[in-house]
Design goal:
Blueprint (H helix, E strand, L loop, with lengths): L1 H21 L49 E6 L2 E2 L3 E3 L10 E2 L1 H13 L2 E6 L5 H7 L4 E7 L2 H4 L3 E2 L4 E3 L1 E6 L15 E5 L3 H9 L4 E5 L2 H9 L5 E5 H10 L4 E4 L8 E7 L4 H16 L2 H14 L3
Parallel strand pairs: 1-5, 1-6, 10-11, 10-12
Antiparallel strand pairs: 2-3, 3-4, 6-14, 7-14, 8-14, 9-12, 9-13
Helix pairs in contact: 2-8
């Protein structure tokens, strides 16, 4: 009986060896790591370069995301104040139809937070009210840091310095300073430092406050305004586009320097810390200056 069992075992072993020799080996499956996702497909380049300032530091690492986590963040602005915020031609902006320095800053803040960015375009004069009502999360709108505004919001680190300029029709020779604005028909943007200044210090004949300052420049080109008081960067933008129709009057004795800041609610100190961190990085790297140069050149060539 033992001999029979031994013979049967020997036959089975031979058959198994033959089967293994005739069957090709199965391919080895690649190792799978569940925590590693495939890289996203590259998106087509947008009109505005994603990084205006390049770096040659190959060892530089991207900044770590903030500990403050938000799924969605709403930027409040008034998109009629180039080069800081404006509607791009044919909707080809840095973020959807929106473009400008403040839009670029807002994108960087949202990226740091790992949040979806939403743009809320509204009248400048109502932005602080909308912020404190919770409609928006922060204001990036070339907003001057003023004591009266500090009563309602916290401001970030200043990121740009400007002052007020007077713009007059090119042929006008009667206005050379703020004193000459007495009895004039003046245009300003609603809720801005320019409007406050004219209301407080100028004995004007008529003051027209526009929700978009471009409306004031259109009125001046039609002959309906004697002067416009507006931030220097915007004044230069419109005058450079219409050098034969408009010119700038600078009155350094009447106008002081002013600083732009990003505004948040008083209680949002964690968000303010992230915004300051982003701004300080962009300022120290020269990125905000580069953005200003880029948009100024682009907009000056628009017409």
């Amino acid at each position: 009986m033992k001999k029979v069992l031994l013979l049967m075992a020997l036959i089975i072993a031979v058959l198994a060896f033959t089967a293994c020799a005739d069957t090709p080996a199965a391919p080895v499956a690649p190792a799978v790591t569940e925590d590693v996702a495939e890289p996203p497909a590259e998106e087509p380049a947008e009109e505005t370069p994603a990084d205006v300032v390049e770096t040659n530091d190959e060892e530089a690492e991207p900044a770590a995301p903030s500990a403050l986590q938000m799924d969605r963040i709403v930027l409040g602005t008034n998109a009629g104040f180039p080069p800081f915020e404006f509607i791009a031609d044919a909707g080809q902006g840095r973020f959807g139809q929106y473009s400008g320095i403040d839009i670029a800053i807002g994108m960087r803040i949202a990226e740091r937070l790992g949040a979806e960015l939403v743009i809320h375009d509204a009248e400048f004069a109502g932005l602080i009210m909308e912020l404190n009502a919770g409609t928006i999360d922060f204001i990036a709108a070339a907003m001057t840091i003023r004591p009266d505004r500090k009563e309602h919001v916290h401001f970030s680190t200043p990121y740009f310095t400007a002052m007020q300029y007077i713009v007059v029709p090119y042929a006008d020779t009667t206005i050379t300073s703020v004193e000459d604005l007495a009895g004039a028909r003046i245009g300003v943007q609603l809720g801005t430092t320019g409007e406050f200044f004219v209301q407080d210090y100028v004995d004007y004949e008529d003051l027209l406050s526009y929700s978009l300052i471009a409306q004031g420049f259109m009125e001046m080109r039609r002959g309906g305004l004697d002067a416009i008081v507006v931030d220097s960067v915007v004044a230069m933008m419109f005058v450079n586009q219409h050098p034969d129709e408009l010119r700038i009057i600078r009155d350094n004795d009447a106008f002081a320097s002013e600083h732009y800041g990003i505004a948040v609610r008083h209680e949002d100190t964690d968000l303010l810390a992230v915004i300051n961190e982003v701004l300080e990085e962009m300022l120290s790297g020269g990125e905000i200056d580069a953005l200003f140069g880029y948009y100024s050149e682009r907009l000056n060539q628009a017409e």
